[in-house]
Amino acid sequence: MPVSHDLYQDLHYPREIVQQRRQQDQQLDRLLDEYVDIDNQVLAAESISAGNFEDEDLRHLKERRLAIKYMIERQLARTD
Q1: What is the CB neighbour count within 10 angstroms for residue 74?
Q2: What is the rounded (10 degree) CA torsion for 44, 48, 51, 54?
Q3: Which pTM does this prediction carry?
Q4: CA 6, CA 12: separation in Å to the nearest integer?
Q5: How far from 70 is each of 3, 32, 33, 49, CA to CA, in Å?
Q6: Superkingdom, according to UniProt (predicted)?
C-alpha cells in the first residue's frame, strides 16, 4: 500500500515552523501546494501501477516530487 512521504521529517523542520513561514512567503506556499499535489499523484500512480501506469511515468513523478522538495529546502534556507 502506498504511503505519503513525511515532508516535514525530510526537511528537518517542525510542521509549525514551516506553516508559519508559509504564511509569510508566497513562493514557499506555492511550492508546498505543488509538493502535496505531486505527492498525491505519486500515491495514485503507485496504487494503480499494477500494469496500468508505466514505470517511466511513475519515475518521472517521483523525480518531480524530489525536485520540488529541494526547492522547498532552498526556500526555507533563504528565510533562516
Answers
A1: 12
A2: 0
A3: 0.85
A4: 10
A5: 20, 11, 14, 26
A6: Bacteria
59-61-67 Cα angle (round to 5): 105
Q: Which three cell numbers stand for residue 52?
A: 496500468
Which residue is associated with the grid cell 508566497? 26
Residue 33: all three cell numbers together: 501546494
Task: Tell me the three cell numbers of residue 23.
Answer: 504564511
Contact call for residues 68 and 31 (beta carbons, < 8 A): yes
Grid cell digits, residue 59: 519515475
Question: How many residues belong to the chain?
Answer: 80
